[in-house]
């Protein structure tokens, strides 16, 4: 899977954020994670990862490589943190997909309740 420098930088920052959350007194920064997830959606993660593993798997592998000491003993914590990032990404990318592009000239089809 090839990525752009922007996506690579965002993945690196998300990895750091996940590693920070795995430290003894570490906390997960939801606001920063949401901002980074939006950045991934904006920079085309969906297109670049089309034939690759999901974001959670990519992050899990990066976390295990980047911060092996806490990762060895905190497998469930890693799963929880990367799942949270995946959910944030899914939310922002779903929202991003539903917003009409101003430059496309295309209108969204009407939605029905039933």
What this model shows, in words?
By secondary structure, the chain is mainly alpha-helical. It has one domain. It contains six helices and no strands. The protein has helices at 5-22, 30-42, 45-48, 55-66, 68-73, 75-98. Helix 2 crosses helix 6. The longest helix is centred in the last third of the chain and has 24 residues, at 75-98. The radius of gyration is 16 Å and the shape is globular. The N and C termini lie far apart (39 Å). Residues 94-104 have a biased composition (Basic and acidic residues). Residues 94-114 are annotated as: Disordered.
Distance between the termini: 39 Å
In terms of DSSP E residues, the strand content is under 5%
**Poorly predicted ranges:** none
Topology order in helix (H) and strand (E) letters: HHHHHH
**Total strand count, please?**
0
Alpha-carbon Rg, integer: 16 Å
Shape field: globular
Determine the fraction of residues in helical runs and give it as a percent range. 55-70%
Summed up, the helix count is 6
* Main sheet specs: none
Number of domains: 1
Mean pLDDT across residues: 84
Q: Which structural class should the secondary elements be placed in?
A: mainly alpha
Biased composition (Basic and acidic residues): 94-104
Region (Disordered): 94-114
Secondary-structure map with pairings?
Elements: H1 5-22, H2 30-42, H3 45-48, H4 55-66, H5 68-73, H6 75-98
Helix pairs in contact: 1-2, 1-4, 1-6, 2-6, 4-6
């Amino acid at each position: 899977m090839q990525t752009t420098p922007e996506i690579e930088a965002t993945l690196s920052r998300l990895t750091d954020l996940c590693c920070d959350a795995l430290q003894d007194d570490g906390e997960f920064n939801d606001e920063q994670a949401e901002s980074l997830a939006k950045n991934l959606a904006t920079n085309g993660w969906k297109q670049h990862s089309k034939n690759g593993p999901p974001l959670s798997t990519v992050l899990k592998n990066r976390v295990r490589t980047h911060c092996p000491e806490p990762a060895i003993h905190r497998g469930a914590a890693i799963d929880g943190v990367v799942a949270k990032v995946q959910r944030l990404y899914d939310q922002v990318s779903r929202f991003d997909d539903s917003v009409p592009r101003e430059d496309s000239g295309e209108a969204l089809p009407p939605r029905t309740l039933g």
